[in-house]
Amino acid sequence: MSKNGERIKLLLSEDLSPHKIALLFLVVLYATGFIPEDHLKQVLLALIKLLENEPLIDENKEFIIVPQLVDLCQHLREVIVCNCPEDQKLAAEKDAAELQKNLLQELWRVSSVEGLNTYIKNTFTLLLNPLAVTVPESTSNLTVKKIISPRSFIGDFIQKIVTPFRLLHFDEEFLLFESLVEYRESSRDLFLKLGGIINHQTDLQPKPSPRRSRLDFSTLAQPQPSNSNDDHLFDVLNHQLAESLGISIPTSSQEIVKQNVRLIPVPKHDMQALLDKQVKLLETYGTETPKFLRQIMALMASPDANTCLIQNANFNDLPSYYYLKYLENLHASDYHGALQSLHQYFDYMVSKSSKYFYHFALISRASLHQYFGEDEKALDAIEEAISVARENKDNSTLTYILSWLFNFIRNKPELWQSQNFYQNNNELHLLDFLIKKSQTVSLLLYAMSYHFETAHIMHSGGPMNKYLESLLKATYISINDELPTFIKSCEMSAMVWTRIGIPHLSDLYSDIAFDYAKEVGKLGDEISIEIRKNYLLYLKGQTEKAYKNLESLKPKTNSDRSLFKSLQIRSLIMMVKIDLRKGRFKYAEKIMKTLLSIEIQDIELKTELIYLNTEVQTALGNYSQALGLISQSLSVIDSQQMKIQSNVYTIIRLNLLKCSIFNISGVHSRAISLVIEQIEQGKKLGFFTIIVEGMILLISILNNMDNCEDAYEILDKFMPLALRVGNQEFICVAYYEYANSCYKMIQAKKNRFKLSKKALFNTFLKYLYLSITRARNSLNLILLRACFELEEQMGQECSKFSNEMKDLKSVDEFREHSKSGLKILNKRAIEEADYGFIVNPEHIIEEE
User: Fold this and answer.
1) Ramachandran area for residue 176 (φ above 0: left; ψ -120 to 50: alpha; else beta)
2) Is residue 259 part of a domain?
């Protein structure tokens, strides 16, 4: 591997690295009192985190894979300066500069392998003898102000560095020194800027008198002048040594620079921690793996790796590397690459006889097959995982596996008959088991089980108080767990309150979830919540804004094909809804064909597409085809009823859509009984959105059956509920039906409410105006046209009783208003109907 024309060579070790040595030098500064007391706490906290393999972060908030000395100095400055009050910034900058200079002085003073050896071994004088009763006086030339216990965290670190360093061979020490030289080179300009002097014979700097170090380095070897004859003699002797004994002494740092070789230290434990961190980020947040990390790991795993070893390090087969490759290939939708990487991970775990990771590999394989729609293979993998968990009596893993199975099969109810490893072929029994077992396993699984129960009660037609109770339990549990669990509970709450019909609570939970998702940084959660927030925006009538917001999210998902696919589907669904409102029926059908060709795993999303396709066919006038789609969907749900509880919400919506088709096609007698049945069912469930939708449809049927007085009376009592639900399309249609009831009552000449034509006409104008305004704001051209047609009909009706209307607005002016509105809409309707066929069909949306 090469970078910018230089050849990279990896220095593999267990724990030793230049960065760890720099941290050891920082410990020396702490022990000798050269860390400012005002900032001692912050620096020590930062030091502890670094000793625990916490990676450094650059200005782009990305991991620094191979940190340099200048990165450590910058981190120390940020720790000191960023955590102090504004009025103390200047003093903090000076303290940070002083600490940086002290650290750099120590590291730049080391000019030979012997000097490094002496320095590291002398750090043992910082440790208190474990058997000592009192702290002995320091024998060093400089007083050591803080004696460190070997049992402390820092004392343990000193021992972990010094002990393996003492065991190194000379050539290994030389390699470590060379890597330290390269590590500190990045800080040269900073050190000189801070007033430091580099006292090496290879630099063009004047040589001042030797400076005393923090520890006694009187035995430090002084550098000798370079001599070309010595270099020639070294090459000859090294060649003879290689021929006779098969060994050679490593080249000097000047030779490494001459060969343009970059020596990169790769400590095993540091790299493993970094990989584990990246795996977690990729799993949880979808964070892309840094390119340099991938290059290093690829070189480590390569049989032709250009590496050198110290401490007998050998870890080309790090399991996290293969799992990381699996996740990357999965995000890129590379099936073969993902499967190959997973098998490499799987084979490694089997060879190590790791039972825990054996389960994990099986679950990952099941997830891979599920991701690519291979349901039977996914079940086979889960069956094996369940068998292994039972054999090892691993209840925690078994609970997790069954949670995965429940979540998988509830979207694939037909698979209940395919599996034979879970005896109770019913999701309710499995759900009860999960709730009981997950309580002692994990708060995440416990909260998730109650999420499942909430959805199950809602889908099976349970009462409102029961599913809200389960939701409350899930939320309470999630509050006591980590943020990702709480975010999922907020998302679930937002969905439930949307379905109930309390938009303010749905907005509240969506906002809470979004704020925490941004704090945690998980892209999948952010996109999911953004989709929900824009759906709520669509319900409020801001259709174009909602669609544009969804489109603006697409660049964020470029690194995750799965996330992009999910967002694209939602965006296209929103586009179809907009097209139906604008009268672009042919174009909506065209997009619908694209949507139906996409393989979708989520059963609710599948149902939504069936519902949307039925709406498109209804708009095109294909009533028999639309009814056929509904009947087919209902029969599929009915056939699954013995295996899984039916989604009552979906059944009600499909039946309401059937009522709407009956109403449009004039079959009112069949529609009215069916719609009343759905309204009653909605009341039992507490779904006010269903009640409002059903009531508006019932009122429309009554108006079409000329039972306008009943429609008017229902509307008078019903409007507050419709306004509370907040669905602007429902409210717009309700106002239209209100105006339609007034028009029909004027036509009837008599009404039981004994309202005058003038009063009815004023009411008509009021509600028609409200309907037109909302239809225009939400760009619902179909409903807008219906409003103007109703206005025109009222104008014709008004001419029949002009004497009663003489003190009102001129009838001619009223009729002219409706005609001009219809003229504009007819022209727009033609343009919209041709949309996507006259313009470039490749564009999903264009500016109006």
Assistant:
1) alpha
2) no
